[in-house]
Amino acid sequence: MTYVVSENCIKCKYTDCVEVCPVDCFREGPNFLVIDPDECIDCSLCVPECPANAIYAEDDVPEAEKQFIAINAELAKQWKVITQKIDAPADADEWREVKDKSHLLQR
């Protein structure tokens, strides 16, 4: 099992989760983070650190967001590793509770 970043991260991209990851499995895109399933050691340290509540164990990803399992795996192969916390976008708090943001994902 691995952990998965879901839709709620889109346009929020808080990186609190990155700081606690012991294996550097996070990858950074323009407006979203993903977890590399090949690197994740299932430690769950990132889950409570996410202000957007966007990280789930693979088995717990909500049914409506199951596509993010494949999205994480796909984009992890394309995006660069992020290992240090950076500032969230200035409008991240405004986007945190917005639903149905999949179409805003920048690849």
Word description of this protein:
Helix content is about 20%, strand content about 15%. The protein is α+β, with helices and mostly antiparallel strands and about 110 residues long. The protein has a single domain (about 5-85), classed as Alpha-Beta Plaits (2-Layer Sandwich), CATH 3.30.70. Strands 3-2-5 form a three-stranded antiparallel beta sheet, with helices on one face. It has a two-stranded antiparallel sheet with strand order 1-4. The protein is globular and about 30 Å long. The mean pLDDT is about 95.
Average pLDDT number: 97
Radius of gyration using CA atoms only: 12 Å
Please tally the helical runs, counting DSSP H or I stretches of 4 or more residues: 3
Number of domains: 1
How far the N terminus sits from the C terminus, by CA atoms, comes to 24 Å
**Molecular shape:** globular
CATH architecture: 2-Layer Sandwich
Report the portion of residues in β strands.
Answer: 5-15%
Q: Give the CATH topology.
A: Alpha-Beta Plaits
Order of helices and strands: EHEEEHEH
Poorly predicted runs: none
β-strand number: 5
Largest sheet: 3 strands, antiparallel
